[in-house]
Amino acid sequence: MKLIEVRSYEELSRVAADCIIDRVKSNPAIKLGLATGGTPVGTYRNLILDHEANGTAYRQATTFNLDEYVGLDPSNPGSYRYFMQERLFHWIDIPAGQTHVPSGVCSDPERECEAYEDLIRKAGGIDLQLLGIGGNGHIGFNEPGTSFHSLTHLVELDPSTREANARFFSSREEVPTHAITMGIRTIMDSREILLLVSGEGKRQALKQLLNGPVTEEFPASILQRHPHVTVIADSAALGRQRRKPLRESVV
Ligand SMILES: O=P(O)(O)OC[C@H]1O[C@](O)(CO)[C@@H](O)[C@@H]1O
User: Fold this and answer.
1) C-beta of residue 98 within 8 angstroms of C-beta of residue 61
2) Which atom of ligand 1 is nearest to the CA of 202?
3) Which residues does UniProt mark as catalytic (predicted)?
């Protein structure tokens, strides 16, 4: 894995956006895997600023989001479809039909999962997958114990994940109990992965990701086996201050 150490969340967001912009420019019909949560918000802000200032085009791009809460329709502000509309899709020139988020309100979740896998496969797979990491090592909504062979599936959320995501809802009880998520294998099949880690709260998870064993008890650890992963981590997550702006190393 390549590790890029940055000083701050702002720098992390700029570096991540620059990487995405670079890939979009060299492959305008790119298939992008996208993430939600607090971490990628600054990255999306930078993509929008760049689109406005430099006209980077997303007309030919296709996106696949990692996950969606079960029971929340796209008009619900807690849903990930709503999040993506507000934070990115509305502000760039990507056609709505080329943005994909699993449906949280389908009548048959199992079929929805299979259909989502099919969509990704028919698109030719994901070129670049953006990821955040949960404090317990989850990627997407793949909680500890998830099989490394899993494809898109229905999950019951860990209480710690519901607790961590309660900040996006008006009360803890409103956080859905289930979600549809790309599986670990779906994520690992991406040709390139960009993982963002920010803040003191992620320090332990980052340490385990970089130095721990590969185990299903810590889902993100499988990324050590992917041939093309870049981790961008800020000082707070690394637990050390950086005076110089950027440092790249192979870990
Ligand atoms: O960026 P955050 O809000 O810390 O979340 C980390 C991860 O947790 C999730 O929000 C799921 O709980 C992922 O979508 C995200 O990648």
Assistant:
1) yes
2) 4
3) 67, 136, 138, 143
Per-residue pLDDT for 63 more than 70?
yes
Best of 41, 80, 133 to mutate for ligand 1, by most ligand atoms within 8 A of CB? 133
Domain 9-127+136-188+213-239 in CATH 3.40.50.1360? The answer is yes
Residues involved in catalysis:
67, 136, 138, 143
- The reported pLDDT for the residue numbered 217 is 98
* Eight-state DSSP code of residue 139: B
pLDDT of the residue at 247: 80
- What pLDDT is attached to residue 246? 74
Which residues are CB-neighbours of 91 under 8 A, at least 6 positions away?
A: 48, 51, 52
Which atom of ligand 1 is closest in space to residue 131's alpha carbon? 16
Question: Ligand 1: residues within 6 Å at CB?
Answer: 35-39, 66, 132-134, 141, 161, 165
Instruction: Look at residue 243 in the predicted model and tell me its pLDDT.
Output: 62
pLDDT digits (tens, 9 = 90+) for 140-188: 999 999 999 999 999 999 899 999 999 999 998 999 999 999 999 999 9
For residue 180, the CA-to-ligand 1 centroid distance in Å is: 14
- What sections of the chain are H helices per DSSP? 9-26, 41-54, 80-87, 109-122, 159-165, 184-188, 203-211, 235-238
Instruction: Compute the distance from residue 171 Cα to the ligand 1 centre, in Å.
Output: 18
Can you tell me the ipTM of this complex? 0.94
Annotated domain spans of the chain: 9-127+136-188+213-239
